[in-house]
Amino acid sequence: MAGSNADTKTPETTHAGALEITDLAFAYPGQREPLLEIASFACGAGEQVLLAGRSGAGKSTLLNLVMGLLDPTRGSVRVAGRDLHRLSGAARDRFRGRHIGVVFQSFHLLHGFTALENVMMPLAFSDIPAKEHEARARALLEELDIPRAGALPENLSIGQQQRVAVARALACEPELVLADEPTASLDPENGIIAMDLVQRVCRQHGAALLCVSHDPSLVDRFDRSLNLAELNTASPAAHTQTA
Amino acid sequence: MPITDTTLIARSLKARLFSTVTTVAVVGLGVALMLVLLGMRDAGEKAFSRGKGNMHILVSGAQQDPMVTVLNSVFYSGSPRNYLFITKRDELLANNPLAWAIPTQLGDSYRGLPVMATTPEFFTLFEPADGAPWRFAQGEPFDAPFEIVIGAEAARIRGLEMGDRVSLTHGTPKRGEEAHVHEEFVYEVVGVLEPTATLHDRAVFSDLTSSWILHAHDRRLNESGPDISLTTEADLIDEDRKITGLYARVLTRPGMALSAIYQSAFNTLRQDPTITVAAPDQEISKLFTIVGNIDQIIVALAATVLVVGAITVMLVLYQAMEQRRRQIAVLRVLGCTKPRIFGLVVTESAIIGAAGAGVGILLSVLGARVVADIMYRRLGLVIEPGFEPRIVLGMAVGTIALASVAGIIPAVSAYRTSVIRNLRPAA
């Protein structure tokens, strides 16, 4: 539940797996059959897992459940040892910002804010002391080879924009990073560069990575690759209702 | 520098600078209008009250509207229609508890400025602002025919100085009319007054006897043709000795503004059918009751401008929320809570209100100065707009509160922004 320790790393949560899904079921309002039914799924600390699946299989829905943007019909989603869905709205938002990093397919950098400010943004909503924000963000930008910290996103190349997005996802040192189709908007060559970057940085920072993609070329890059269809025991008819 | 709510709000305002500035301007205009009207209302009444000075009662010719006679005789707005003979003054002084009754005659002008013919007592007994007697910048009151004293503003705008010699005009010619200048009679400037912050500053004061001589000359021309000698005091007959008003003061104890006998004296005078009696105080109050009704309409209009400003704030922010839904969704994913989003939007709205209030207060100070300047230059009315700190503060707080309320609808819209729907990749 919402509490002052909701967004802090307690000893209990530090040693837990990055993500644990247990007996999860989800149906959109008005749906009789669940879209997702996952008996059990876990992503260990620092583990890198690829979750593949065709379009409409429920990959984005699963990510939204893991981010706490959707509430399951049944079951639990634990991130860094905390059951996300037992947190109140505001506590869940704070928890998400602090413990889950997200790399969007289209980056979603904030316009009107510099690269540095974009990276500092999740820190602003966290319990990390304000005096550390800029140093952390600058270190990440340097590590990801973004020399123009003061540049606006629209003045950066696509590759630089993606690096800023990755730096932002890791700013709070989250236990779990979610990557939603990170190569979908890139050509194959840049797709490889982008994946190299995301995976390397997650590894360096000890964050688990759950990457959702329908790109079969990524399978061999991960510690573990799963097809959502193997995990999801819900009736396929439900998928066609939402696809 | 860490990112704070201030950073987020400042960037949001900067991102749509044009609409921010426009909205602030609209709110500022409403605030300025309200403040100028509220500030000028009392100042206007004070300015009008000042001109009647220490006079209690204004007496003028029979069957006139008391308010019109006050406007004529104290504010130089037109000329009284009917007249009295000077003998009436002696009669009134003899039969009523009056401390003094100073004769005045209006109707002539000097290059568009009103000329008041009166007696030297006007400068010794009458005080243009109660408790503040006349002061001469140069010279002294006239004490002989064909001498004039010039009001401070009249001297300034007509460039008159001590010793200047001028001729007066019979009546006040309307635009396009030929002035009937009495060039045969030359007046000498013997005194220039200090400013009094009243309409008297725009007047020229002449000796009453010379005014009678001037008009008697017209009478004699009509009676005997153009070959008459120049009229002198010896040519005056009783019918020439006309006045248009009497500035009168009821007997009072020294240092007292009014006495208990004032009302009975006023009532007694009113029973005389040959005169019109007006209490300038009452007439000014009546005037401001009428003006007050118009004033309320203007204040209501200003309030409407302010409400329109608040609605503009709401529409601009609502539109901005529609354009920023993706940004709000990203902020939510990055850890920004819904209540914080709500607070950011309401604060942004309140800041627009605060900026509008600030601009409005500045505009009102400048606006009031401009209006006061125009009033002084055009009408000679000295208006000192008073901005009571209580009203200014109330206005600022009220505007911020109104803008905050206006921000609620956009804030609710931002609060309810669907993260999932707005983060879907563009098709």
Task: Describe this entry's structure for a reader.
- The complex is a heterodimer of chains A (243) and B (427).
- Helices cover 37% and strands 20% of the residues of chain A.
- In chain A, strands 6-7-8-3-9 form a five-stranded parallel sheet, sandwiched between helices. A four-stranded antiparallel sheet of chain A has the order 2-1-4-5, with helices on one face.
- In chain A, strand 7 (176-180), helix 7 and strand 8 form a beta-alpha-beta unit.
- Chain A has helices spanning 11-14, 59-67, 89-99, 115-124, 130-143, 158-170, 188-205, 228-231, 236-242; strands spanning 19-26, 36-43, 48-52, 74-79, 82-83, 100-103, 176-180, 208-213, 224-227.
- Residues 1-15 of chain A have low confidence and may be disordered.
- With 243 residues, chain A is an alpha/beta fold.
- Chain B has two domains: 5-47 and 287-423, no CATH class; 57-278, no CATH class.
- Helix content of chain B is 53%, strand content 15%.
- Chain B has helices at 5-15, 17-51, 66-73, 87-95, 121-124, 152-158, 208-224, 262-270, 280-323, 325-333, 338-379, 389-406, 408-415, 419-423, and strands at 57-61, 84-85, 98-110, 113-118, 136-139, 147-150, 165-166, 169-170, 180-181, 187-193, 204-207, 242-243, 245-250, 275-278.
- In chain B, strands 1, 3, 4, 5, 6, 7, 10, 11, 13 and 14 form a ten-stranded mixed sheet that branches. In chain B, strands 2-12 form a two-stranded antiparallel sheet.
- In chain B, helix 2 (17-51) packs antiparallel against helix 9.
- The radius of gyration of chain B is 32 Å and the shape is elongated.
